[in-house]
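RECORD TYPE: inverse folding
INPUT: structure tokens
STRUCTURE:
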């Protein structure tokens, strides 16, 4: 199974670039506020007609000076809130399908599974009948699932031609720490690997 068979690789480089630029923009916002606030302090005496020296030093400790400076300074609330939201967004992305904190296989793990199970026709894709929102995330950020196109098709074909009530379980196939090839389930809830060569087809216990 070659790498071309695992379709829709996560564009991780593009995603990292986006996050880096956003983080740099937030840092620049902090810097600009800091520069503005320092300038407000340094020029307040001049604006209020106080000469440099003892006259300004005495004015700096007054309540009037503090009020005037505060009125000209920018608030830190905006960039701090955006930074916290940004950190939350980055952490949230790590829980998307295919990312480190997710219970689903990553792209590289799906590739390894494809090599270990050449018959399965594994693909980095979306299961059928997913939401438009899910499709968008998969296409833009690679938040896809690992699918066995062949085993999925085998199970669905047998569901039409047998009385066993076969149903393919995408989650078993796509999740970590499971026997991914054993995702075809019968009407009794037993899941395993479908033997299409048996007559009638049966599910082997996993």
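DESIGNED SEQUENCE:
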């Amino acid at each position: 199974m070659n790498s071309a068979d695992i379709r829709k690789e996560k564009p991780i480089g593009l995603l990292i670039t986006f996050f880096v630029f956003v983080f740099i923009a937030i840092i620049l916002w902090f810097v600009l506020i800091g520069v503005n606030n320092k300038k407000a302090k340094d020029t307040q005496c001049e604006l209020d007609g106080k000469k440099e020296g003892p006259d300004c030093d005495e004015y700096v400790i007054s309540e009037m000076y503090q009020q005037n400076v505060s009125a000209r300074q920018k608030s830190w609330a905006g960039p701090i809130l955006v930074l916290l939201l940004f950190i939350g967004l980055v952490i949230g992305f790590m829980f998307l399908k295919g990312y480190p904190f997710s219970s689903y296989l990553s792209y590289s793990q799906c590739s390894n599974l494809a090599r270990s199970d050449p018959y399965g026709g594994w693909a980095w894709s979306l299961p059928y009948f997913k939401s438009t929102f899910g499709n968008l995330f998969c296409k833009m950020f690679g938040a896809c699932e690992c699918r066995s196109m062949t085993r999925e098709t085998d199970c669905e074909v047998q569901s039409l031609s047998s009385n066993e009530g076969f149903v393919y379980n995408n989650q078993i196939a796509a999740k970590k720490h499971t026997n991914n090839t054993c995702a075809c389930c019968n009407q009794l809830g037993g899941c395993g690997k479908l033997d299409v060569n048996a007559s009638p087809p049966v599910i082997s216990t996993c």
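NOTES: The longest strand covers residues 191-195.
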